[in-house]
């Protein structure tokens, strides 16, 4: 019996090939290779999981949702039906389950924190429209392009991670966060001590003088 090809979809709806476990038969027929029983997955839910450094593991994936604070309180934990699926697909089902099981919890929440896998305006809008929550995530540096237009004087670009870089090529240091104004305050990097070795001197090394702060929204 021919094993059907397994296909999946990206979060943008494009078709893609997906890794899947081997199939087997649980009927225990003596001639199981040719018997009419259907093949089933030998490891339901397993898939190729890519972690840091593009290392791949054959594994299962569990998604959890917890109430933050000094002590995190788990509210929901489920095994993903397909470990190879994108991490962004688990948040909305979590919120729907919690809204059904613990409606008072959702009513008293304002913000949801997640990782860079959910740095997507469509997901933010869905969470805001359905649960009334603000989704805040770390910027996805691989998906965001550097900002190079309409920048403050002396700033060459703002990286995909949100760090301003001056015209001399040095990234600025984060000084403070103005939460009410939703602004980040940056300043020039610390002054480096002069090196005795001429080989370490580089063009554009910060020099002594007042440091100007830069505000980004």
Number of domains: 3
The major beta sheet can be summarized as:
3 strands, antiparallel
Helix/strand order, N-terminal first: EEEEEEEEHHEHEEEEEE
**Which class best fits the helix and strand makeup?**
alpha+beta
Count of distinct strands: 15
Number of helices: 3
Q: What is the strand content?
A: 25-35%
Side by side, the strands of the main sheet go: 13-14-15
The low-pLDDT segments are: 1-6, 195-211
The residue fraction in helices comes out at 10-25%
Indicate the radius of gyration in whole angstroms.
25 Å
User: For the terminal residues, how far apart are their CA atoms?
Assistant: 59 Å
CA-based shape = elongated
Rounded mean pLDDT is 78
Q: Could you explain how this protein is built, in words?
A:
The protein is α+β, with helices and mostly antiparallel strands. It has three domains: about 45 residues, no CATH class; about 80 residues, no CATH class; about 55 residues, no CATH class. α1 runs parallel beside α3. The longest helix is centred in the middle third of the chain and has 11 residues. The radius of gyration is 25 Å and the shape is elongated. The relative contact order is 0.08. The N terminus is likely disordered.
Short description:
The chain is an alpha+beta fold. It is built from 3 helices and 15 strands. It has helices spanning 91-101, 103-107, 121-131, and strands at 7-9, 15-17, 23-24, 40-41, 47-50, 56-59, 62-67, 73-79, 111-114, 134-137, 155-158, 164-166, 173-178, 183-187, 213-216.
